[in-house]
Here is the input.
Amino acid sequence: MVTPRTPRSAALALATAVVSLAALALPYQALAAPAGATKAALPAVTPRAETPALHDDEAGGDADADDPAIWRDDADPDRSLVIATGKQGGLRVYDLAAREVQSLPAPAAPGPDHAPGRYNNVDLVHGLRLSSGPADLAVTSDRGTDRLRFYRIDNSRPGGPLTDVTDPSAPPIFSADQAEIDDQRTAYGLATWTDKATGRSYALVSQRERTSIALLELTPAADGKVSYRKVRTIDLPADFRLPNGTSWTPCGEPGELPQVEGMVVDPADGTLYAGQEDVGIWRLRADLTGKPKLIDKVREYGVPGAYDEETEECTPGADPGYGGKRVTADVEGLTLLTEKDGDGYLLASSQGDNTFAAYDREVSDANEYEGGFRVTAASATLDGSEECDGAAVLNESLGSRFPNGLLVVQDGHDAPGDSERPSTNFKFVDLGKVMDALDD
Here is the structure.
């Protein structure tokens, strides 16, 4: 992650002490520590394939796997694609065998003292009406330049399925000028949404190191290009009143507020789910009107912390016991598993303990917790997922390789590999295995 966090070992040790006092009152799968206890309580699924490793170093082009999206080729599902961000390494496009079919660089820095493009999250828009005709688009949040970038998807294109169609005049989202962009409190998390009532398409974008979320309407520009206009913003809370009457803010670097990254919109009713990394999962209207509701908290919610300037880490204090039971900070990688009858799950990456939590999709059922799972190694050469940043799921047949649908999860520590190089990639999991795990 790009921001200092509480050491996981310290957080889990803290959770152990708290859980041991309340073990009789909690479901077995809620016991957060030791880490092995949580893992043993949840079913495991194994990946079927993995993408080539990306390396966040000079030799690897500063590429760091982060967030995937799954595009279904309706004409030939076997030729469907996974489109994923590699941060400063740009975009990668993979086939269903997890082989790379296209690599697109992020924009170069506008000057020697400025940051280059850095693609954080990606999502899809289907059938957006452009001046050149309707198109499916991959939309990315570019943290480096504080903008959105758009790529038209055309599987018949000889040079590769993605073409950049970003309007060159697309404005910064949160920054007034280049000086503010250089501060890198810029576009971070991303989710797209098409309003069923109006047919208009939007992107919801969070701000790095802030609690803001912006609603941007996607607009066609000349020559088949795409731009956007800001509709409104909302700020989630940065501090929280605890039951004991005290006020709590998650520990972080001075000046840094608890940011949002993972987001997804339920297209059926326009509900936005947003993961505030060190706080929990919020539910709110995708048009950013109304009052947000915190539907689950991370285990570390309410734990005080002291930031150490020398180590750039937080040392946690005593846990007052106000946290949740299902996810361990950071909460990441929100994605929606939809079913034809209206049921389904909101899936969330519990990054701190390498698990995934599933919540009921239906608001009428209060998004209650339905279970969880882990993605573990399939073999000595095909590992599972650790510290997962991003995830995407599609509950549709994807031809012969994934007839039951597909779950793609980021792996923050790809193994086996060179221990001297940071290695990340994406794991492809048969969705049928996930459904079986959640039905157990």
Observations:
- The first helix runs from residue 8 to 22.
- The longest strand covers residues 119-130.
- Helices lie at 8-22, 35-41, 178-182, 431-439.
- Confidence is low (pLDDT under 50) at residues 1-39.
